[in-house]
Design a protein that fits this description.
Elements lengths: L11 H15 L1 H8 L5 H23 L1
């Protein structure tokens, strides 16, 4: 459960912003969206491979 302490005199908008930030950091929304559909393991592996290739290309470009 995510708890956001609200200080005295703090606006509701600021408190909501804190709550949204905590939700993003914990990855709750991302996981819920991911669970809505089934992704085959082969597709997951392919996406992970392509992401690794992309990151490695970026690192090689930074070294040059």
């Amino acid at each position: 459960m995510i708890i956001v302490p609200v200080k005295e005199g703090e606006s509701i908008d600021r408190s909501l912003k804190k709550l949204k930030r905590k939700f993003e950091k914990t990855g709750v929304v991302k996981e819920l969206r991911e669970r809505q559909k089934f992704t085959k393991p082969s597709v997951k592996n392919r996406e992970a491979y392509l992401k690794a290739v992309y990151i490695q290309a970026l690192q090689l470009d930074q070294e040059k």
